[in-house]
Amino acid sequence: EAAINETGVTACVTGAGSMFRIHMKADPPLNFRESYLTQQENNKLKILLDHLFDERFLMINTCSAALSTPMSESEIDALVCAVKSGFQKL
Q: What is the spatial distance between Cα 50 and Cα 32, in angstroms, rounded to a whole number?
């Protein structure tokens, strides 16, 4: 969320516990219909996912992921940094 605020990109993060999803929407979707991506949102999501892959982070096509217990602060910080630089590309 800090990366979203710092870059000014239209996005939000949802999830609970170790699972999260990045949405290319200003507000968290409340149901399936609200989570449907417009063509523009889908294009932005593809750019972000390609960037994350280039930065050595593999996320599924919905930009969802789960953190795992072997991950340390350095891996999480690297992910946040990669997401932020991806947002800056947008």
A: 24
Identity of the amino acid at 13? V
State how far the Cα of 45 lies from the Cα of 64, in Å rounded to an integer: 11
Query: Could you tell me if 22 and 51 are in contact, meaning their C-beta atoms sit under 8 angstroms apart?
Result: no
Output the six-digit token pair for 66.
């789960």
Q: What is the pLDDT of residues 5-15, one digit of tens each?
A: 999 999 999 99
- Give the neighbor-by-neighbor strand order of the sheet with 12-16: 12-16, 19-23, 64-66
At 4, list the tokens: 């979203």
Output the pTM of the full model.
Answer: 0.87
Which DSSP category does 13 fall into? E
User: Do the Cβ atoms of 41 and 25 come closer than 8 Å?
Assistant: yes
